[in-house]
Design a protein that fits this description.
single chain; 119 residues; mainly beta; 6-stranded antiparallel beta barrel; 1 helix; globular
Protein backbone atom coordinates (compact mmCIF):
# COMPACT_ATOMS: atom_id res chain seq x y z
CA UNK A 1 0.00 0.00 0.00
CA UNK A 2 1.16 3.56 -0.59
CA UNK A 3 0.27 7.15 0.17
CA UNK A 4 0.63 9.24 -3.01
CA UNK A 5 1.91 12.83 -2.89
CA UNK A 6 3.75 13.81 -6.11
CA UNK A 7 5.26 16.86 -4.39
CA UNK A 8 8.49 18.59 -5.38
CA UNK A 9 11.36 18.14 -2.92
CA UNK A 10 14.81 19.60 -2.39
CA UNK A 11 17.64 17.10 -2.53
CA UNK A 12 21.27 17.16 -1.47
CA UNK A 13 24.26 15.15 -2.57
CA UNK A 14 27.42 14.24 -0.70
CA UNK A 15 29.22 14.87 -4.00
CA UNK A 16 27.89 16.91 -6.89
CA UNK A 17 26.64 14.75 -9.80
CA UNK A 18 29.03 14.30 -12.72
CA UNK A 19 26.26 14.11 -15.33
CA UNK A 20 23.57 16.76 -15.05
CA UNK A 21 20.80 14.87 -16.84
CA UNK A 22 21.41 11.72 -14.76
CA UNK A 23 22.36 12.86 -11.27
CA UNK A 24 21.91 9.52 -9.52
CA UNK A 25 20.74 8.90 -5.98
CA UNK A 26 20.89 11.87 -3.60
CA UNK A 27 22.11 11.46 -0.01
CA UNK A 28 19.02 13.11 1.44
CA UNK A 29 16.02 15.35 0.81
CA UNK A 30 13.75 17.88 2.47
CA UNK A 31 10.00 17.37 2.31
CA UNK A 32 7.41 19.53 4.04
CA UNK A 33 10.12 21.14 6.15
CA UNK A 34 11.56 17.86 7.46
CA UNK A 35 14.99 16.61 6.45
CA UNK A 36 15.43 12.95 5.57
CA UNK A 37 18.73 11.11 5.19
CA UNK A 38 18.72 8.22 2.74
CA UNK A 39 20.27 5.19 4.39
CA UNK A 40 19.48 2.51 1.81
CA UNK A 41 18.56 2.20 -1.86
CA UNK A 42 15.91 -0.55 -2.10
CA UNK A 43 15.08 -0.37 -5.80
CA UNK A 44 15.90 1.70 -8.88
CA UNK A 45 14.13 1.95 -12.25
CA UNK A 46 14.07 4.30 -15.23
CA UNK A 47 11.38 5.42 -17.65
CA UNK A 48 12.60 7.33 -20.70
CA UNK A 49 9.34 7.43 -22.64
CA UNK A 50 8.10 10.74 -23.98
CA UNK A 51 5.09 12.13 -22.10
CA UNK A 52 2.25 14.56 -22.69
CA UNK A 53 2.70 17.06 -25.51
CA UNK A 54 6.10 15.68 -26.53
CA UNK A 55 4.55 12.22 -27.01
CA UNK A 56 1.75 13.65 -29.17
CA UNK A 57 4.24 15.59 -31.34
CA UNK A 58 6.38 12.50 -31.79
CA UNK A 59 3.49 10.42 -33.02
CA UNK A 60 1.99 13.20 -35.16
CA UNK A 61 5.27 14.07 -36.90
CA UNK A 62 5.58 10.52 -38.15
CA UNK A 63 1.95 10.47 -39.24
CA UNK A 64 1.07 7.18 -37.65
CA UNK A 65 -0.14 6.01 -34.28
CA UNK A 66 1.81 2.77 -34.88
CA UNK A 67 5.08 4.54 -34.11
CA UNK A 68 5.36 4.34 -30.36
CA UNK A 69 7.06 7.10 -28.42
CA UNK A 70 8.85 4.47 -26.32
CA UNK A 71 11.10 3.81 -29.35
CA UNK A 72 12.85 7.09 -28.66
CA UNK A 73 14.52 6.86 -25.25
CA UNK A 74 17.07 8.81 -23.30
CA UNK A 75 16.85 12.14 -25.09
CA UNK A 76 17.83 15.23 -23.12
CA UNK A 77 14.95 16.39 -20.96
CA UNK A 78 12.95 13.21 -21.47
CA UNK A 79 12.24 10.64 -18.81
CA UNK A 80 12.40 9.96 -15.12
CA UNK A 81 14.81 8.13 -12.83
CA UNK A 82 12.98 6.46 -9.92
CA UNK A 83 14.43 5.38 -6.58
CA UNK A 84 12.80 3.50 -3.70
CA UNK A 85 14.71 4.51 -0.59
CA UNK A 86 14.67 3.94 3.13
CA UNK A 87 15.41 6.92 5.36
CA UNK A 88 16.86 7.31 8.83
CA UNK A 89 13.26 7.39 10.13
CA UNK A 90 12.83 3.86 8.66
CA UNK A 91 10.20 5.20 6.26
CA UNK A 92 10.24 4.01 2.65
CA UNK A 93 9.69 6.52 -0.15
CA UNK A 94 9.62 6.46 -3.93
CA UNK A 95 11.30 9.58 -5.29
CA UNK A 96 12.16 10.45 -8.86
CA UNK A 97 14.17 12.89 -10.91
CA UNK A 98 12.07 14.34 -13.73
CA UNK A 99 14.49 15.33 -16.50
CA UNK A 100 12.03 17.75 -18.16
CA UNK A 101 13.34 21.34 -17.98
CA UNK A 102 11.01 23.73 -16.12
CA UNK A 103 11.43 27.51 -15.94
CA UNK A 104 15.16 27.53 -16.62
CA UNK A 105 15.93 24.56 -14.37
CA UNK A 106 17.34 21.39 -15.85
CA UNK A 107 14.89 19.11 -14.03
CA UNK A 108 13.17 18.56 -10.70
CA UNK A 109 12.99 16.06 -7.89
CA UNK A 110 9.63 14.72 -6.74
CA UNK A 111 8.49 12.65 -3.78
CA UNK A 112 6.09 10.34 -5.57
CA UNK A 113 4.80 8.26 -2.67
CA UNK A 114 5.42 6.88 0.79
CA UNK A 115 5.32 3.09 0.79
CA UNK A 116 3.48 1.63 3.77
CA UNK A 117 4.50 -1.97 4.39
CA UNK A 118 1.93 -4.45 5.65
CA UNK A 119 -0.98 -2.00 5.55
Amino acid sequence: MADFYSEEIEVRFDREPLIEKKPGLPSGFTWRGQEYIIVELLKEWHDYRLRGRAKCRYEKERGSYWVRSSEKRGSWGVGRDYYRVQTQTREVFDIYYDRAPIKGRKGSWVLYRRVVEGA
